[in-house]
Amino acid sequence: MSDASILKMPDALPRTPGPARCAACHAGERFRSPLAFAFQPIVDVVGRRVFAQEALVRGAAGESAATILEGVTSTDRYGFDQACRTGAIAEAGRLGLAASGALLSINFLPNAVYEPKNCIRATLAAAERAAFPLTSLMFEVTEGEEVPDVPHLQAIISAYKEMGFTIAVDDFGTGHAGLSLLADFQPDIVKLDMGLIRGIHLNRSRQVLVKATLGACADLGIRVVAEGVEDFEEYGILRGYGIELFQGYLFAKPGLGALPEPTYPD
């Protein structure tokens, strides 16, 4: 399962003025706590290949994302966001991810982006240092973080798409926006939250909701990832619905400082 859903900041944190945000972003690669990254594959079960590797933040000694996030404040979340981006790219470059043909998926905090084209500079520089193609980057925005300024999020998505990035919405179906988010902008990928698909083979309500979401995404030209899949029974019914992209323990657990090779259930 992916632990990206905990990459969020409490809704009550105040918004930091622009100059302070920019200063924090410039200092991003000097975030006060050293970070490490685990990677978990998103697999294409039809092509039997790794579609993407999602970078999951960890402490330098392997501490969980939750442990790291407990120490992130409203003022240093901008530096934290930048450190996660640049660190994930550097580590993926070291591991040779780009040569595999898979995407690198990075979670980002929309509320930590002040101006998209300025805030992306450190990311672009990190990609250049690692010789990592921009078209191999996928950014996941989690529904777990409330975004009060929807036009601002739309501006971020528009700018990122212009730069050639793939855009995904993570934790879809259990966060703040739900289907209404798709009315405001269309991402390239929607990741169905594990809360929707856990035990789906035994729950008709989940089956109805997932099929309705798949229909909407198909009409909008959006690909769907089923995340957090752990049981073959869950996989079987979701595969029967036509889903091709999966992530979860059934395929591979996150690997600290490594790119795990997935197994395929059929």
Q: Give the low-pLDDT segments.
A: 4-17
Largest sheet: 8 strands, mixed, barrel
Number of helices: 11
Report mean pLDDT, rounded to a whole number: 85
Q: What tags apply to this protein structure?
A:
266 residues, alpha/beta, TIM Barrel, 11 helices, 9 strands
Structure, described:
With 266 residues, the protein is an alpha/beta fold. The chain has eleven helices and nine strands. The longest helix is centred in the N-terminal third of the chain and has 18 residues, at 77-94. It is globular and about 45 Å long.
Question: Could you write a compact summary of the structure shown?
Answer:
The chain is an alpha/beta fold and 266 residues long. It contains eleven helices and nine strands.
Topology:
Elements: H1 18-26, E1 35-44, E2 49-59, H2 65-69, H3 77-94, H4 97-100, E3 103-108, H5 116-119, H6 121-129, E4 137-142, H7 150-162, E5 166-172, H8 180-184, E6 189-192, H9 194-197, H10 204-220, E7 223-227, H11 232-240, E8 245-247, E9 255-256
Parallel strand pairs: 2-3, 3-4, 4-5, 5-6, 6-7, 7-8
Antiparallel strand pairs: 1-2, 1-8, 1-9
Helix pairs in contact: 1-3, 3-6
